[in-house]
Amino acid sequence: MTIPEVQRVRDQRISAVVPLMSPALLHHELPLTAELHDTVLDGRRQVEDVLNARDPRLLVVVGPCSVHDPAAAGEYADLLREQANRLADDLLIVMRVYFEKPRSTVGWKGLIMDPALDGTGHVGTGLRVARKLLLEIVGRGLPTAVEFLDPITPQYIADTVAWGAIGARTVESQVHRQLASGLSMPIGMKNRPDGSISTAIDAINAAAVPHVFPGIDYSGTPAILHTTGNPDTHLVLRGGGGKPNYSAADVEHSLQLLRKAELPERLVIDCSHGNSNKDHLRQPIVVDDVAGQVADGQHGISGVMLESFLEPGRQDLGGQLTYGQSVTDACMGWQPTVEVLEKLAKASAHRRRTARA
Ligand SMILES: O=C[C@H](O)[C@H](O)COP(=O)(O)O
Ligand SMILES: C=C(OP(=O)(O)O)C(=O)O
């Protein structure tokens, strides 16, 4: 085939191809120092210990729905760090530092895909900004959590992450299950947006075993990746299908499904999304219920997820932005977040004390 013939069939809907630095180049520019490396490993070990009941604390994955302004996320991390230290006997606090947003249809896809927030899609800049912020947050001693959405991005940032999620919209995808099987940290599998829990259980089983699939290596070269399987995946209940699924009966039902599938009986409850009907004012109501279950000795609840930022609510992109307010889902403001964390710490302390007695 001549080159013009190839060009008539190839890349017919690609309007531009822009070079992107390799993961190795970005790591060289923004390295994970030996000290930060130990902090990441320690954060992952603590999450694993909570999930495997070697540590009686409650895992709390908390932070903005998405990062759109690294300065505001950094300020939030400073505040959260104080709470993480203060409540460390009872809670293992991990900050949501979410850069990739899966959309139901279309919308802003997060800071990695669109760091200028205007659809220009400077992914190289997005990866650089994301890695820099993750390193800064790890440098404050806070473990970080992200959703892994694109199968290429983990090579650029996953070394900074202590807990990862496969989201409700991708939990049925083989690509994401394969990815989870090779990721180095515990991964939460969310129930599907229609509420299906069995799909997340299938994902846990699929990610637990080795897979072979094409991807890129650290140098950015196409490679066939052979994974070992991830033993630290777990269910995340986020509500769905128009119904919440955080009640004591829902939790018991999910634990039964896990038992039937011969999987560890542990789960995380996302107090936002389908469990709050995306109303940030409902998150504390969900927390009240979940804290009650924990205090009553429900050991199947390993953790909770909260969406929280400096300012309550949400705003649309496009106009003058309010500092510290979410541009995706509505978040609790800072003060209610502190109150909710205290409530969860008390519940966790009570569960630990009564288990010992
Ligand atoms: O967490 C954020 C959103 O719930 C998710 O990205 C889907 O958002 P959308 O339904 O507004 O697209
Ligand atoms: C998109 C998210 O959640 P879900 O996949 O549950 O909708 C999220 O946690 O940001």
TrEMBL record:
GO biological process annotation, one example: amino acid biosynthetic process
Top-level enzyme category: transferase
GO cellular component: cytoplasm
Reactions performed catalytically: D-erythrose 4-phosphate + phosphoenolpyruvate + H2O = 7-phospho-2-dehydro-3-deoxy-D-arabino-heptonate + phosphate
Short name of one Pfam family: DAHP_synth_1
InterPro entries cross-referenced by the UniProt entry: Aldolase_TIM, DAHP1/KDSA, DAHP_synth_1
Stored SUPFAM superfamilies: Aldolase
Domain DAHP synthetase I/KDSA residue range list: 49-341
EC number(s) reported in the record: 2.5.1.54
Listed pathway(s): Metabolic intermediate biosynthesis; chorismate biosynthesis; chorismate from D-erythrose 4-phosphate and phosphoenolpyruvate: step 1/7
Keywords assigned: Amino-acid biosynthesis, Aromatic amino acid biosynthesis, Transferase
Protein family (similarity comment): Belongs to the class-I DAHP synthase family.
Function noted in UniProt: Stereospecific condensation of phosphoenolpyruvate (PEP) and D-erythrose-4-phosphate (E4P) giving rise to 3-deoxy-D-arabino-heptulosonate-7-phosphate (DAHP).
Protein name: Phospho-2-dehydro-3-deoxyheptonate aldolase
Native organism: Paractinoplanes rishiriensis
Lineage: Bacteria, Bacillati, Actinomycetota, Actinomycetes, Micromonosporales
Encoding gene, per UniProt annotation: aroF_1
